[in-house]
Every structure is written in C-alpha cells, then in structure tokens.
Amino acid sequence: MKKTIRISVSAIIPCLLFSLPARGADHDAVPADTVPEQLNELVVTGRRLPQVTIPAQVLSGDELKRLNSNSVADALRYFSGVQVKDYGGVGGIKTVNIRSMGTNHTGVVYDGVELGNAQNGQIDLGQFSLDNIESLSLYNGQKSEILQPAKDFGSAGTIYMHTRTPKFAEGETYHARATVRTGSFDLLNPSALVELRLSSRVNAQLSAEWLNSSGKYKFRYRRVNPAGETAYDTTAVRQNGDIDATRLELNFNGTLRCGSWSAKAYNYTSERGVPGAIVNNVWRRGERIWDNNSFVQGRFTGYWGRFTSLNNVKYAFYRTHYVNNDDKQLKIDNLYRQKEIYLSSANEYEILPQWRVSASYDFMWNTLDADMYGFAKPDRFSHFLSAATALSLDRFKLQASALGTFIHDELKGRQSPEDKKVFTPAVYVSGQPLRSRDFSVRAFYKRSFRMPTFNDLYYADMGNSALSPERVTQYNVGLMYARSRRSGFVPEVRVSVDAYYNKVKDKIVAYPKGQQFRWTMLNLGKVDIKGVDVTAAVTLNPVDDFFITARAQYTFQEAIDVTNPADNYYRDQIPYIPHHSGAAVVNLTWRGWNLNYSWIYVGERYNQQENIRYNYTQPWYTSDLSASKDFRLGRVSMRALVEVNNLLSQDYDVIINYPMPKRNYRFTLSVEI
Amino acid sequence: MNINRNIRNLFFFVYFLPLLMVATSCREDELVVPTEYDIIPETPSESTGIRGFYLVNEGNMGSNKCTLDYFDYFTGLYARNFYAERNPAVIKELGDVGNDIGIYGSKMYVVVNCSHKVEVLDARSGVRLGQIDIPNCRYVRFHRGKAYVSAYVGPVLIDPNAPKGAVYEVDTASIQVTRKVIVGYQPEEMEVVDDYMYVANSGGYRAPGYDNTVSVIQMTDFKQIRQIEVGINLHRLKKDGYKQLWVSSRGDHMGRPSRLYVLDSKNPYNRMEVTDTIPVACSNMAIRGDSLYYYATEWNSFTASNTISYGIINVRTHEIVSTNFITDGTDRNIIIPYGIAVHPETGDIFVTDAKNYVSSGTLYCFGPDGRKKWSVRTGDIPAHIAFLPR
Questions:
Q1: Calpha distance A163→A133 (Å, rounded)
Q2: Interchain proximity A232–B161, CB inside 8 Å
Q3: What ipTM goes with this model?
Q4: Total structural domains within chain A
Q5: Buried b / exposed e across A7-44, counting CB within 10 Å, b at 16+?
Q6: B117: contact with A, CB 8 A cutoff
Q7: Do A280 and B90 touch (CB under 8 A)?
Q8: Chain segment A201-243, per-residue pLDDT in tens
Q9: Is residue A634 part of a domain?
Q10: For residue A1, is it within any domain?
Q11: B62 CB near a chain A CB, below 8 Å?
Q12: Interface A-B: count of C-beta contacts within 8 A
C-alpha cells in the first residue's frame, strides 16, 4: 500500500508548488508511515514525499481558527514543552521559550525564512496575527528534513508559521475574504484577503489587517491574611496598553516547468503603549513604542533529475522608536534601526531512492544603528554552511547534519571582537520496531548555540564584547502511537511521549559590575533541564456528522541552575519555568456548528532564581470557550464566532506585576467568496 | 476495524487526563507574605542606648520587592520582611526600589524611589502612619523638626529633557510637604552644617554631561544660594565631627575614576570648599568618631571582575589608616558590597552583600577588630540601615 502511494504521488505531481498544506487531502492518501501530525507540514517537493524523521507538533486550519487565540503566541500555548512569557493584553510583548532553553534559542520561521532580531534575539510573537496563518508547527531541535537553509539547522527549537497559500479549484479565478473582530479591550480588528489567479501558473494574494484596541481591562489584586480575612482587595484598569497596528502582506506564488517560486512583501506598523509593571503607588506609566517592520523575501525551488535546489533571499528593515514620557523618570527617546540581508541556497541530491545528501550555504548581514550614547553601531557578517544526509529504509530513518557557523562583527570606531566559529552536529533516528506501523520510536541528539546579541555585546555600558556563544546540548527519546482511519467510532488517535535532557552552558547572564546598580553580561550560567512532553489526540465519530476531537498536552520540566554551589539558588528551578504545565482542548462539531473548550494550566513557578517563599508564583489556569457557525448564502460562505476567554475570570500574572485580563469576549464575523 | 483496539486507544486517552489533574496543583488565596525570623547570637550591653536597627532591601526595579527587615538586640531576633505582616492592608506592600531610611523622633521614613513616595511608619511598631508622594525621591535627612527629601525631578519641569532636581521639606508632625527648592541635576545625599544644607548633585540622567556640584541651601529662607564645583557624578555626602563634608564621586565608569573629596569652611569667608582629594575610590561610607569606613567596588574590564576594597580613613588627619577593615578573610565571600553602617556605640561594622541583585542578600556584622560576628540572610539588595534608639 505504502509503496504504491509513493509512486502515484510522484507520478501525479512532478512539479508541484513548493509548500502545499495538505489539509484538504484525503486521509487515505497518506501512507501509514507518515503520521497525521506531519500532514499539515507536508512539503511536497516534486517526486517524493518528505522524509521528516521526527514529526512536528502542528496546529492548522480550522483547529487553529477555533482556538481562542489573539495571536500566534496564544496558539503556541497548546504545544507541549513551550512556555509563553506574556506581559498581558493585546499589545503586551509575548515571547516563547522551548524546553526551558531560553527565548534566544528559539528560531521562528515565517514562510520559509527565519525572522531575525540581532538586537536582542527575541521575536515578539504577539505581533503576528493568526488572521493569515494556515498552520503553526513546532520542531524540537530542528525540522528533520535535509533540504532546508543552513540556518534552519541552527536553532535549539523552531516554530514554523505558514501563511495561507491560494488554491483554486477548476474555473475559479479569485477568492476574497473579509473578517471583522471586535470585543473586549475596545478591540476593532478588520482584515481582508484577496487572492487572484493571474495565470495558470501564477497567483497573487493580498492580505491586510488593522488592529486597534485601547488595551484597557480590569484586573484585580487580592491578599488575605492567615486568618482568612481580606487584607486588601483592589480592582483597577490597565492603562497605557493601547495598540494601533496595521499589517500588509503581498504574496506571489508561481510554478515553473520544473520548479516553483514565491515572493513576499510584508509590513507591520504599530504604535503601542507599554503598560509596565504594577507596583505600589504606580498604576500608569509613560512608555511607548513605534514599530515599523518590513521585509521582502523570495524563494525558488528547482528540480533537475535527482537534484533539488531551494534558494531564498530576504531583505529586512526594522525601525523601533522607544520613548519614555514619564515625567517622574529619566526621559528616553531612542531610535533603533536594524537591517538584514539574507541569502540561502540549499541543495539536495538523491543518491539512491533511500539515500539523500544535502549541502546548504547561507549568508547574512545584520546591522544596528541606535542613536544612543555609547552604542557601537555593529555590522555582523554571518556564514552558515551545512551538510546533511538522510537514510530512509523500510522501517528505519536516520538523518545526520552538521552546521558550521562563522561570525564576524565589525564596529565603528572600536576594535572588533574575535570572530566566532562554531560547529554543531545533530543526529535524528526513528523506527517502527513492531509489526504494527502505528507505533514508532524516535531519538535525537543535537548541539546548538545562540550568538550573543548586539545588546549583550555592545549595549552602552552593559555590553561585553568578549562574550562567547551560549551552548546547548539536547538528548531526546520518544515514542509515538498514531493511527487514522476513514471511518469508525475512533477515526483518529495519536499519543506521543518524549523525554529529554538538555544542558545549557556558558549561559549569558547579567552580572553585577562596579559600584551601584550596574551590570555586565558574562558567560556564567549552567542549566540542566530534564523534561517529559506528552501529547495525545483522539477523534471520535459517535453519530453521523458529529465529531468529538480532544487534544491534550502535558509537560514536566526540571530546569535547575547548576552554575555555582556557592549561590543560594544552586540547583533551584530557574525563573518562570513551572514543573508542570499542560493544556486540553475539546472540540465538538456537528454540521456547521462548532463548540470548542480549551483549558491551559501553568503550575507553580518562582519569579526569581531562588526557590523561596518570597519568589513563589501561584499556578494559573484558564478556561476558554468558543462557539461558531458556518453557513452559506448563495455563493458566499460565512462564519460567526463568539469567544469567551478566561471564563472563570481568574486573576493571575504570567510575569509578576503584569496582571492578565479577567473574563473577556471576542466576536468574529467572516465572509468569504 | 478492530473495535477492541479502538476502545483500548480511547482508554489510553481517558487515563491520561486524570493523570494530568493529579500531577498539578490548584491556585489558592494569595496570602500576605509572612515575616521570617532568625536568631542572632548577640547580647546587648545593659546600658545600651540602641534597641535595634532597620534594614531596607531595595529590590530589583519592577519587582515591587522593597522590603524592611528589623533586628532587635533585646530579643536577638532578626525579622525578615516584616512590613507586609505589620501593614497587611497596604496595596502592593512597601513598593518598588527602596532607596533610604531615616528615624527621627518617633517616626521612621522609608524612601521608596520607584514608587515615588516616602513611607512614614511608627519607628517602634513599624505600623504605617502615612505616605508623602515625592516623584523619584532619593534620600532623607532631618533638621529642626523637618524632614528633607532629595528628588531627581523638581516640581517645575524647566527643561523637559533633563529637569533639575529638588529638595522637598516635609513637616514631621503633619507629614505634609511644606516647601521645595530646586537644586542641581539628580541630587543624591544631603547634610546640614551650621544652618546650610549641602546637596550632592549627580546629573546621572545627563551622562556623559554629569553634574559636578554640591548645592548650598540657606535653611532660613530655603533657597539655593550657590553651587560648589567638586567632581563629576557626586553621590555620597557625609559630615564628620569637625564640620567637614566627605563627598564621593562615582566617576564616569570609563576614564575618570571614583574619588572622595573633603570640603570644609575654615577659610576667611566661612564658605565650604574642596580642600582635599583622597586618592581612593569610594562607593559608600559611614563615619563614627574619627574613623570613616568606606568600601569601593571598581570594575576591571581587563580581568572582567570587580576589585573591591574596604578601608578606613582618619577624618582628622585624612590618612588612610587601613585598606581592609575586614581582617578574617570574609571579604572573599562578599560579591557586591552594597550598604555600610557602623554601630554608634559598639563600633560594630555592618556590610551588606547584594550578590547578583536578584536574589537574597546577606548582612554581615563585623566587630571593631574586623572579625565576623554573624551574618544573616536578607531580602533582595540589602542596602540602607537605620539604628533605633532604645
């Protein structure tokens, strides 16, 4: 069965579009050894199915739309092993940390090209709307696919965002969709999408979105004394959390006789307030940020016999204007300008149908200009060279890769630090040891690093240009059971368990320096991380047209600081990493109706390094509920969605002193032709 | 279509959810943070005039973890973080980044910099009496029934990009601001000598264009009458028994090092002026009798480490008597000295260690001979000490 499918796919789509989300594909067309999880991540490169050794966690299509999520960051909370740092509200900064290794080790790839931030190494995923996102996938280590840019072999964990790709049925020449969202926080969020079939080989897509919100919400702080009497109980309105943002995205996709290409232009412009910490006597702050992020990127994939080539190019310009207007504090008015040029060529050769090799080379140039006293204006030249091989036998898959990274920084008016050369290997294996192909085991080993950011190295008084890269070693073993059928009471079931051990060394930490309250950055930290990720999903079909889908994930992590036995936090859990966290989603679908319940749990944590009572942060868990109805009016299909978030109105902080909203609502109406 | 298998699969999932529930714990009511006690092996002398001392832990900015510790010589108990327990109804507790503490009469004043307030407490019980809102307040000193608080931001924004600072006068009976005077940029410590107040101006918000003056305020009409040029980025200002002022400069953290200046007014015009520069770096100091105890932390970018010194200067002769008043080697355990105080009667020297600024610090007590008597865990960034009279 499996073999025939593989042959038929290669026969039918010799020169298919590069990235085709296979959501619409018939489940039966999936060979038994490609698990349903990777369906959505299917990258059909012409003559064969992808050879992903370890599949990703994926959220896509309708499932993604139904989760109560304002942004990509919200949706990522449903993945195991991920902790989202959320400063609260629509405009609040949201960053992710995979398996406790730190935000800077997380790669974020947007339609095939990694997003960069050379300044602080962190991508604010709150800025990415879900409006245009077709699928989100999370790979621990790297995507175990050998045809990819060299840089993609580099992160300790990677999130891939795929925007919607136009798919036209026979005779269709355009699609159009208009959506409007409104609700709590004075939210107004209209968006529009137009897709045009320009020719049989080229189509275009324009997506635009405007987001406006006052960011105001009620939050509550309450304390009781040991006798159970209320010590204080106060409810206030979050201030200075307003946002006004636009997103514009233009995409072209085309197919060639033996290849495909795509091009994208992206702009995100926003003005927002930074709500700041709520501390005694301070309920409002005066910080504001203006962002203007633009990039253009293009990609070309070509197939020549056994040879496949994937080429990317990108230019990005990020402008950030930060102002602190608080008349009680130091006035700050800084402008940061970052530029990036990225070129990548990934090439794969099929020696045998079961054995492939690849080599990739990427070049990247980054620069940062800040109108700040004492800033070094660095230029960074990075070269990434990778080699990889993949072996795919009947029941066994192996992939090995090695990445060499060479980084040279140049400073204006200062001596450049030493060049950095880092070599990082990775090995991925998976197999199906039992007679049933539903069951698989997998393992990987990977070394990776993060470069010190421009801020770590050159920030006015704090930077330390002598920093070395921060290194991570990951070991992972896991098993998975996945089965899908066309019909029956349980059409689909999927369970996976992974255990991992990560070691972070030369961790870049702030170290007190000189007199008073000053810091510098040093390669001091060591962290040992042991964890278990469990995911499970099941689909039930008790009655015709009635489906129940349940999905759950649980993460256990012990991430301890092992830097120095003399520290009073030696072997304590690192800040903001809970021992236990998880999520569960239950979805009921009946014809056009859909009801979704999701629950997120983050266990007790400590907000500073020492695991003492003063630093204890309570668990939080929220229940979100949404209901939607799809209906048609002639040619027009419509969807109405009502969401209630934080149903039980829990008062919680993800980050201490950054209160989260109480119960809130959102209404969405979407029209598509 | 194996029904059995389907059901088995389903059960696996059904087992899994309760497992998740068991592994996790629930949210409880947020309790007022309780005080913790440590026993200190210390016995006071019969005739002592000192009951104990308070220690302000600054807490990292934005953490709202400014806390107050109290040590009582008579009970031998060190009470860590006792403000919240004593004042449970105060919303968000003591506040964000403590910066100074002073006791005057029956009242205690805690300056909480990033909460923009001076917290007024009963000095014996620690119970809150009220607060004085002063933007970006820094230090507090007392003179003739009034408290004086330096603040980075003056009441009138003359230059919005770098407003001059001010000194606020607070009536200690009504705890209300009565007057204010604009001084130099970002004023820090103050002292009153002969009815003139001297204020060290840092200009820290204007780096690299630091202020370099000490403001002189005539107390009768509360006016700034002149500014004395001393050195850049001034911080500490202490008077000794000879009516001399000891003023520290932080330097610019680059080429110009930290220094300690001496001012006196023994000249025909009776005007304070710089008369001596002590060639040491000085981060903080405390004076008892003729001895000025100081420490200095200087960053050496070549070795990527701090050079820390603990010295004693004779304020009469201006001689450096000692370059390490810690004699038993305990100084090796101190990562970042952050506060210093000397017991007015016994001469015991207190040094606090702020470590990495985001974990519990340590308070060390050394005898006058420089040997460690005891140490105790404190809150985050232990910094400022005020002795409570008996």
A1: 4
A2: no
A3: 0.91
A4: 1
A5: eebeeeeebbbbbbbbeeeeeeebbebbbbbbbbbbbb
A6: yes
A7: yes
A8: 999 999 999 999 999 999 999 999 988 899 999 999 999 999 9
A9: yes
A10: no
A11: yes
A12: 214
